[in-house]
């Protein structure tokens, strides 16, 4: 649905985006992550035609944005930075206003889209009375008026409370799963991206550092930390240190949890030594890696 190839954008001498590439397929949600100033918004502005790349190419449904802009944009709906709504109009009036700018048939989708984003009961209230989450949902309905194949969302859950964040997440997953829309999401809420997205692309200082399936990315950066529940914990920690484990820590206060970094290939040998020395081992596990852990490792600790 969307192919970005070697995108580069400069502002004076500063290269905001450098050789960024990714693909987006029908029914898929792609998360676009990076620290502040990494080039996320610049990339999004290029995707929707608000900025022209200095080099590289964007194709939407096979249409080159540079040479066939109008036809390419008929397949795209977007929210860049925040929904552009008239607060003194009702939700319905906003949708009808934007629908009139689109090809015939957009006005007929207002009711169904309002139901899809759970706004039907408040559609005839003024937007000025809406919560931030309601405005975000109405903005998504607006982006869907043209029946797009690709939906581009810039920080769709920014500033929302937990209930509003979940509503946006479930809506995005529904749009991808039930309607087959390809959704491109930029977000700084890493835990939400982990739940919402099928794949992620991480950029830093304008360059792509990592991309791939969310679960594969988590496995890649899971590390070698091991949590062993054993008694006596002090003896287990002492033996693991002697075995060559690194960063060995035993829980204080008479606890029975030992944390250590052990090479995965040596875990069976380490456990055999513990049991052979009379240590009772109750459980062994690797703590689950999160997208936040992977992100911080990839970007060297810089925040989103």
How would you characterize the overall build of this protein?
- The chain has 2 domains: 218 residues, P-loop containing nucleotide triphosphate hydrolases (Rossmann fold), CATH 3.40.50.300; 62 residues, 2-Layer Sandwich (Alpha-Beta Plaits).
- It is elongated, with a radius of gyration of 24 Å.
- The protein is built from 11 helices and 14 strands.
- The longest helix has 18 residues.
- It has 304 residues and is of the alpha/beta class.
- It has a 6-stranded mixed β-sheet, sandwiched between helices. A 4-stranded antiparallel β-sheet has the order 2-1-4-5.
- Helix content is 34%, strand content 28%.
- α5 runs parallel beside α6.
List keywords for this structure.
single chain, 28% strand, alpha/beta, Rossmann fold, 34% helix, Alpha-Beta Plaits, 304 residues, 14 strands, 4-stranded antiparallel sheet
